[in-house]
Amino acid sequence: MEQKDKIKLTLKQIGVTIAVIIIIMILNIAMQKTDKIQLTQLSPQGSSQMMGYLIKTRENKIIAIDGGTTEDTNNWIQKVKQLGGKVDNWFITHPHQDHASVFNEIVTNHPEIEIGTIYYTANPVTWYQENEPERAFEAERFYNTIQNERIKNKAKEVELNQKIKIDNVDCEILGIKNPEITKNAFNNSSMVIKMKINNQSILFLGDTGEESGQKLLQKQKEKLKSDIVQMAHHGQAGATKEVYKEIQPKICLWPTPNWLWDNDRGEGYNTASYKTIETRQWVNELKVEQNIIAKDGDKTIEIK
């Protein structure tokens, strides 16, 4: 064989080897790619109850749900920076400060955090002033925030039964503001979000109250069943037992600090007037497999 032919043969072999290596790399990447998501429940950094969730999708998009109080901001920032520093989609269930204050702080004071689309539901400020005047300032602050130049073109008010696809997560809005429900006004106008990934489902109830919970039973009963549920209003004085019976959860997410979990006003177990202990009994009766409680620190679970 001539030297020229040997060189051609060697180059051909090298080319085949490189092609095989590339194919193996592509196959490895494809095999490693799964439809799982990571869901993190954040824990309170102060004494207040709060609610904040971060979800990492298959393609590393980050979904935030609420966030917590001002005291929870630094912990939230740390977690988001670990995930890449950008929130692709942010759902705000309602403007109460233990849910929306982190959002207000990030938009106003932390331009280093990139924010994509914001989804919210809220009544006009005047409605809150009429129906929950002592806390109407919280709605005013939220509305001021979504008018911030940074995000005012990114904030979208959701519609009932609206479907939103974010990577491998399919969202459906099962509950929005309820202006006709003026009792427990803020909470009963919480957004309710159902998320599906493969054969798993997650239901976020926000601070859904008894009245809006009954509305869910009337309007969305067939859609409530979910593998995972975020306990309404931190697990106390929220949705009723009948709602959880329809949900039939396997896992309960409790955005609940220690004092609220034990219904302790400083005098010991079950000495306060909250309804957490009653809700815990419901969950036991439903034979829930796992409770993930904010009092135990930040927790991340994988959902396939």
Please supply descriptive tags for the structure shown above:
alpha/beta; 35% helix; 304 residues
Write up this protein.
- Helix content is about 35%, strand content about 25%.
- Helix 3 runs parallel beside helix 5 (about 135-145) and helix 4 runs antiparallel to helix 5.
- The strands form 2 sheets. Strands 6-5-4-3-2-1-14 form a 7-stranded mixed β-sheet, with helices on one face. It has a 7-stranded mixed β-sheet with strand order 7-8-9-10-11-12-13, with no helix packed on it.
- The chain is globular, with a radius of gyration of 23 Å.
- The termini are far apart.
- By secondary structure, the protein is an alpha/beta fold.
- Strand 4, helix 3 and strand 5 form a beta-alpha-beta unit.
The share of residues in helices is 25-40%
The order of strands across the largest sheet is: 6-5-4-3-2-1-14
| Residue windows where pLDDT falls under 50 for at least 5 positions | none
- How many beta-strand segments? 14
Q: Rg from C-alpha positions?
A: 23 Å
**Element pattern in H and E:** HEEEHEHEHHEEEHEEHEHEHHEE
Relative strand content: 15-25%
Mean pLDDT: 93
Q: How can the largest sheet be summarized?
A: 7 strands, mixed
Number of helices: 10
Structural class: alpha/beta
Described by the principal axes of the CA atoms, the overall outline is globular
Distance between the termini: 57 Å
